[in-house]
Amino acid sequence: MLFSLFIALSAAATLGHAAPSPVQRRDISTSELAQFSFWVQYAAAAYCPTDYTAEPGSKVTCWAGNCPQVEQAGATILYDFSDTTITDTAGYIAVDNTNKAHVLAFRGSYSVRNWVSDATFIHKDPGLCDGCKAEAGFWDSWVNVRDDVLEQLDKAVSQNPDYQLVVVGHSLGAAVATLAAADLRHRGYSSTTLYAFAAPRVANSALASYITAQNNNYRFTHTNDPVPKLPLLSMGYVHISPEYWITAPDNATVSASEVEVLQGEVNLNGNTGTGIPDVPDLTAFAAHHWYFEKADACIGPGLPFKRSLPSQ
């Protein structure tokens, strides 16, 4: 594969770019663990067709059983989106009256392997700050649904102005969620909280610094998950900070001591430094699925890339 060859040829340049950050780490508290374990369930629900194609007022559910706390909270769908753009951006807006939150959730890709093979990682100016560049595909995925999402969020917030706004996603959904949260804050939703699980890099240093400075960012990686190592540092991409690095094994209950908080756009003490630093191990996709839950369990076997459009 050309992309695999490119990774191998880029390794030396990547390592030359990546100066490790000072060792700044801490473990999380049990209350933080409970919070993180809860919000990932909304990201997991974004993979379920019953949620991203739901009728307004439907309950958020996960046929794979990986969002029990969300189901218990009685969260309901306000708006869903899928099959309306060339990027096939999919997800939903839900209201959680139990936790006083509006949740904007983005679905990840059905085939991460195919995405890795086809990715080009072109930069694009998102218009958020001077010198800022975003990954074009991720940014366009947000922009293609932005107008309708903003309209629906405005309605929801007008009805529940004291509710928090939470943006979530796993994998490619986390990439879109990261840029969406940054843009929403830029547009006045300044207290938006982001939970990004297994996100690839989405920004150059200027944009990553801008998003980091907005605060309320929780970006998670897991052991040697290859997706957060893309795009490569040598391509001009870095991560937002901090990183919440899950060190627990695959398919295991995560304890508070198994999540380390690491600072910096490039920190070799976490996911970036596993294996050959910043070179993704494309055999390690098992680590990509497990973020407190099996985050993408609702994909299911044989699920089509897109749901069928209704007949005209």
TrEMBL record:
An example molecular function term from Gene Ontology annotations: hydrolase activity
Signal peptide interval: 1-18
Family label: Belongs to the AB hydrolase superfamily. FaeA family.
CDD domains (UniProt xref): Lipase_3 (cd00519)
The protein's name: feruloyl esterase
Domain Fungal lipase-type: 103-233
Organism: Aspergillus cavernicola
Mono-/di-acylglycerol lipase N-terminal domain: residues covered: 7-79
Catalysed reaction equations from the record: feruloyl-polysaccharide + H2O = ferulate + polysaccharide
Entry keywords, A to Z: Hydrolase, Serine esterase, Signal
Listed EC numbers: 3.1.1.73
Sections of the chain in a coiled coil: none
